[in-house]
Amino acid sequence: MKWFLKCIRHYADFKGRARRKEYWMFALISGLIGMPIAMLRELFGNDAALEGIWGAQESMGLASTSSAVLSVVVNVIYLLWTLFILVPSIAVMVRRLHDTGRSGKILIPLFVLEIIFVILAVGAGIAPTMAMSILLVVTGILFLVVVVWVFVLTVKPGDIGPNRYGSDPKALDEIAQD
User: Fold this and answer.
1) For the chain, how big is the Rg over CA atoms in Å?
2) Is the dihedral of CA 135, 137, 143, 148 positive or negative?
3) C-alpha torsion sign, points 28, 16, 7, 30
4) Which pTM does this prediction carry?
5) What phi and psi values does residue 163 have, to the nearest 5 degrees?
6) Beta strand segments in 19-78, E
7) Burial of 24 (0-12, 13-18, 19+ CB in 10 A)
8) Which is the most buried residue in 70, 72, 87, 123, by most CB within 10 A?
């Protein structure tokens, strides 16, 4: 939990380096918090899912009001969590890349491909064509390649000793423990 809180304290700190332990503990804790929120959103976040739950109460007129309120509450909680965790997630990822001697700018293709993929997915849903489908598949494959590449970089050991992004955080943690 201390690693998660460290990332939250360094909410928008894109400078310096982050150990693997800091990055992966932050990912674990934020995932453990975010997963139940996402599950609640899947269960209660839209009226179609709630229709089955509230179906018996529909004859009394309770279903539409209750389900709408519940849907809004769950979606607001999900949105707030996503917005809250977005900046520290990117910041710790940039610091993790710094620890391996790489610039955080290598994340730009990841975000660009994600935006293109979403735009193409929406476009394919509105006006499906073979060309749109091919572009969607190619963009999806490129996105996955970049995701795997970034994943490999996050599991790679950091540079030993100082690099152009700062001191070795592992060495600093070991000195602090002595």
Assistant:
1) 21
2) negative
3) negative
4) 0.78
5) -130, -170
6) none
7) middle
8) 70
